[in-house]
Amino acid sequence: MTASSASPDRPAATAGSPMRVLVVEDEGKVAGALREGLEGEGYEVVVETTGEDAFFRLARDRFDVILLDLMLPGRDGLEVLTAVRRQGLDTPVVVLTARDTLQDRVIGLDAGADDYLVKPFAFAELLARIRAVGRRGRVADTGRLALDTLEIDRTTRQVARAGESIELTAKEFDLLHYLARNARQVVSRDTLAREVWRETARSTTLDNVIDVHISRLRRKIDLDQTVKLIHTVRGVGFVLREDDS
């Protein structure tokens, strides 16, 4: 983490309280620097140094944002992330890690991360990522979305079609939810790369990953359904709507 000047954007408060951030980091100097920097920006910070402690902390406490290192002693960050997402925890998570390959990013995002920041990083960039995921975490559309016979509950991360429950991976749910939030509007691959995969630039590999997830969603959402909802707009992107006109 590199130093920067204080950000002019202060964290938004909820009912008069500062945003609460859980930092899960086993390197003492890094954890201390994060705590000091974030508290200096007006955040309330709690630090846990093991995956096990973070998991039990999240079972009894509430946070607005989680900063999660992947390489932790005992239960690693990926295990913690997968476990809390399975339990329905929807708190935004920014993964902090030295693992910088595309495959590592895909694995982390598929497990339910909202953003991914590779060490070393600039503190100003971390603040920007926190503000971004914090805003997404407070959006008013956290309830139910429906289109034709498709129902999506963002709070419980449950999906059903024609009354039948559908099992989705964390990334499949994020992709479907984003398409549903923008129902009847064509969403480009650039937008999906940025908003769902949190990547600033497209690549052939990422395009393939997006196409694979769209294909999986089609099989789960539209298979054996008279009305198809997921459509490809050739050369542009994808759209969730009741017909392909």
Provide the descriptors you would attach to this structure in a database record.
8 helices, alpha/beta, 12 strands, 245 residues, 5-stranded parallel β-sheet
Report on this structure:
This protein has 245 residues and is of the alpha/beta class. The protein folds into two domains: 20-137, Response regulator (Rossmann fold, 3-Layer(aba) Sandwich); 144-240, Winged helix-like DNA-binding domain superfamily/Winged helix DNA-binding domain (Arc Repressor Mutant, subunit A, Orthogonal Bundle). The chain is 38% helix and 20% strand. The protein has eight helices and twelve strands. The protein has a five-stranded parallel sheet with strand order 2-1-3-4-5, with helices on both faces. It has a four-stranded antiparallel sheet with strand order 6-7-8-9, covered by helices on one side. The protein has a three-stranded antiparallel sheet with strand order 10-12-11. Mean pLDDT is 84; it is low at 3-8.
